[in-house]
From TrEMBL, chains A, B:
Protein name: DNA/pantothenate metabolism flavoprotein C-terminal domain-containing protein
Boundaries of every DNA/pantothenate metabolism flavoprotein C-terminal domain copy: 52-109, 183-297
UniProt-listed Pfam families: DFP
Protein family per UniProt: Belongs to the PPC synthetase family.
GO BP: coenzyme A biosynthetic process
Gene Ontology molecular function: catalytic activity
Length: 322, 322
């Protein structure tokens, strides 16, 4: 049996206690096979950023939590990756370089505008494959933007919670090298629960009786992220709830607890129309999108860019560039 | 609390007891919003089949089981839908009409051969969108086959376990109208567990303590499928295990219990290389695919087509066409 994540309050536990949790987690869950290669790519990507350029790490999609060691079943979080993919496009257009840490098969920037390849192509009488004329102009616009920005985006895919948390740690540590110009935009829907390997059955759970499954709590990674991995970056977390009565209160509690910069709070049912951004300063900003032709992510990115600019300015004043 | 699915042995329970389970399930889980429209489309699709044509219902992909009423988290079954999508193509080429009951966003027939639309298209100097020459010939072949067969395939998408089981019941009942010419090829990875609505929390489970989740067993739908919904069709179920020691034994037990026609047994790790088909007659047929350029689904479809032909012949002898 695993020792950690089982307390009633690992979020608010003492600092030492929590550090033990993170260490235990990374000791127990193996790094993804391509971890070293990916992180070295990220290091180069961030290192190549010009002095005035900003880099944002956008996390996107849900995380998968296996219920069996040879995994047939898993718990997942509802998230198509729509917010992360849309935000990535707006960040790129605002001049950011983007590390796009996304769940395998989640919605992708640019590609999301084109439904299915079989719907947009046709055989023109003879044997030539062509783009249907009704789709041509939209696809042209999408392709132009994709070509323009593709070298400014470094994509990493994950599937399991474990892979996600390994990459988050590695990438945010690299991001810290550019100080306040770095931003973390944590839009992924990360599981709060998991089953430690030692508590997991090896084989597929048999269906001859009702399974009772007890989960362990995932250590709250915002804490080491803010304190140790990327203390200089501007860090934005997302809070999704279904109960409106606890949403803002939970956002404020998280800011107080983890001391990061912003929480973007949203409700499951209205998340495409309205979100509320809360800064650690106490400022509460409601963003409503009434324009059907606009995506709320363009408004969110505008706001966080402005806040990030202010943050960079403040930090420059504190410790000017060499 | 819900009453059903809680016994230790709902698979092997008495017939009356099981019928209660199915009724309870359908009483409790609402039908998908588009149910009537879809089933009426299926009725027309199957009704339009010519007298010598065969129809196969291919189920494909995993089923999602919500953990909360306003669903943020869910349990899913590992399945990309690869087997169902590939098999659908081979059935179409063998002259079958196919009802493709597939999980939303699972792998699709034909489209599966083309990676991403952004990878295959390019802007040719000016503003024209064209297919990259390196992809042109492959896409041409795929499009030709897609165009040829698309009217022979009726696709239905589902996401939750509840929607899947509603469609399965409705579609198989329609299939029964063409007697032995109908086949069910149940390749979907269907959850054995779920949480009845009354046992489910309304809101997102909070992460301040370790959740313990007790699942109920999903009633075994193969029983009413064989007995009541499509008693005249040739029915093939799939069995996926991770433990080789129990695989064949479980396949034989299922055939004895449900009295359908075939189980295709496969192991999680070797399922693309080898499967074992077991007929109710006791015949055991191992299919190995050593040819890297061939998909094992082409061999599976060859075998089941042959067995289906024999089944049709036997049933014609029993009750000749009017």
């Amino acid at each position: 049996m695993s020792d950690f994540g089982k307390g009633a309050d690992n979020a608010g536990g003492s600092s030492e206690e929590n550090i033990k949790h993170w260490d235990d987690f990374y000791n127990e869950v193996p790094a993804p096979a391509n971890y070293a290669e990916i992180i070295s790519g990220v290091r180069k990507f961030i290192g190549d950023a010009k002095l005035e350029e900003r880099v944002v790490v956008v996390t996107s999609g849900g995380t998968m939590v296996p219920l069996e060691q040879l995994t047939v079943r898993f718990v997942d979080n509802f998230s198509s990756g729509s917010r992360g993919a849309a935000s990535t496009e707006y960040f790129l257009e605002e001049g950011y370089k983007v590390v796009f840490l996304n769940r395998q098969k989640s919605i992708q920037p640019y590609a999301r505008h084109i439904s299915s390849v079989l719907d947009v192509l046709e055989l023109d009488g003879g044997a030539n494959v062509t783009v249907k004329s009704c789709h041509a102009s939209k696809i042209q616009t999408v392709l132009e933007r994709y070509e323009k920005y593709k070298t400014s985006c470094f994509a990493i895919t994950y599937e399991s919670l474990g892979d996600y948390l390994w990459f988050l740690k590695g990438v945010s540590t690299e991001l810290n090298s550019i100080g306040a110009r770095g931003m973390l935009y944590l839009a992924a829907a990360v599981s709060d629960f998991y089953i430690p390997k030692n508590d997991m059955p090896e084989h597929k759970i048999q269906s001859d009786r009702r399974p009772e499954i007890t989960f362990s709590l995932v250590p709250k990674m915002l804490r080491p992220l803010v304190k140790d991995w990327a203390p200089e970056a501007y860090i934005i977390s997302f809070k999704l709830e279904t109960d409106p009565n606890i949403l803002l209160q939970k956002a404020e509690k998280a800011l107080k607890l983890y001391q990061h910069n912003m929480v973007i709070a949203n409700m499951l049912t209205t998340r495409k129309k309205t979100v509320t951004a809360v800064e650690r300063t106490g400022e509460v900003m409601k963003i409503d999108n009434d324009d059907e032709d606009k995506e709320i992510e363009s408004l969110i990115v505008n706001l966080v860019k402005e806040k990030h600019s202010k943050y960079i300015q403040e930090n420059l004043t504190k410790s000017p560039l060499p």
